[in-house]
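Progress report, Aim 2. The chain analyzed during this reporting quarter is listed below.
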Amino acid sequence: MLNKCKGILAAVLMIAFLPSYAASAAERVNSVSVTDKGILKIIPQTDTKVGITDDQGNKKDSNTKATTKNEDTKKDEKKEETGKKTTPETSVIYTASQIKKQLKKLESSTTIPTVCVYTDGGAEVISREDYVGCEVYTVNCDKEYKLKAERADIRVRGNSTAYGGNVAMIRANQVPYKIKFETKTNMFGLNDDAECKKWVLVKAESNLLKNDIAFSLGRTILHDYNYCSDGILVHMYLNGKFKGIYELCEQSQINKHRINIYETPEGYKGVRTGYLVEIDNYGEAPCFRMNYENATFTDIEGRTKKFKSVIYSIKSDVYSDKQKQFIKNYVTNVFKIVYEACVNKKYYVFDEDYNLVKAGKKFLKQTDENGEPLDPAYIVSNNALNLESVVDLYLVYEIAKDRDVGEGSFFMYADLSKESRDERLTFTCPWDFEWGFDSSYKALNAAVFNTDEWAAVYEERSNPWFILLMKQDWFMDMVKNRWKELRTVPEGKKTDAISAVMKQEKKILETYKEDLCKNGKNAVNLANSLINWVNNRIKFLDGWLLND
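Predicted structure tokens for the chain:
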């Protein structure tokens, strides 16, 4: 991706305020229009559609979507978290020539890929529910990836990272965004030039590289049939104002270029379709609760706890209660199959209607490629759950030491349509590493319960699927074999796949060093410290997984 993105970046024109206007800014929202002659005009904000103007000052037809704000949002706009009155940002309407000058200035001063968004009428982007119409531009990239006035909608996304939707906090801080283009569009050549409507801007942490490293590892570790978002570090400007450094990445969604499973046709109410679910502590509807057999279990370090029940949100489209109940039963029964086999040596499979039935003796007498008998627990588990995908996701989350691995943003899918290539539950799409890459690089994480001390503060957020399976010798062998594959230097290569990822991350820092310091002079130092942490983490896992 580095060879695709070049160019430049700079500070953008700042908004000017008239002294006579400042006193009344807290009482009304106005637009400021700067003409080519440098004349500053105050334009009262109304419900009338206002678009980006052309060079003659005429409004462009933007097909802006009207937004409806709920009462809570209206209240939030009137006060900060402390209860003080808050002032909306003054909006600027730029002409096409002014935008062109700004983009040219950016290209002359930096090299990092840059996303510039200009909203219709200079409207604020402060809602997690309501989209604002906009035009999207990209600079510092190859000509074929430059976007020029691409029509889209934009809104705030996220939960805690968006301060729970608190408008005053959104105005005052960097927040993530979701962009939805009107037509399928590629950004910066990501995902082999795949064109999709939905893209995400995740704010970079102080150390910049958490998500970039995690996504790069995911794309390296996951097998080709599976999906991990592609991503790239960018500067982001909104209405001429620098908003921060972001990881531009893909939406977690069913799509032939992303999670490539059957997408439920609108209005279809049958159960034979594709499902995408997410372990989601926010419990966004439609959703169901997963109790993990109400089991108490001892992990590989000897820590005994009861599995904590959590909420699974259904992220794919559902059109009937029958579908909701079906996917709940399906996921619950897959875990039951694995748990009963591993703990109680009771072996179940699905019948043609996905009801649990006892596995036949002949079915349980399977052998490997060497003719050795397979463990019955492996046989029934792998029959219902794509264990290869579990191994891959486990390794990603264990490297990242993500504390939130069992509580939020953990995805899995099942394609039960007639066109399905694999009906097993499959772990997919590693996402959201805000709680990862911290503290000691030596301790295990995804394979075990949280420590009592940590859970007392943040609650138990461990992953029962990983904890249960990592106690099985045959699963541990799968993890070790996969790690050995990834750490072996392929013929004709100079380095193994995991080391290659970390070298690429180092190269990113060297290439965009000056641009990345826009987040603070210490940002690159923190990013280098993160790279060192991950390299030490990898060595720690080598000592655990490569030893017989």
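Residues 321-344 form the longest helix (24 residues). Residues 224 and 389 are 11 Å apart (CA to CA). These observations will guide the mutagenesis work planned for the next reporting period.
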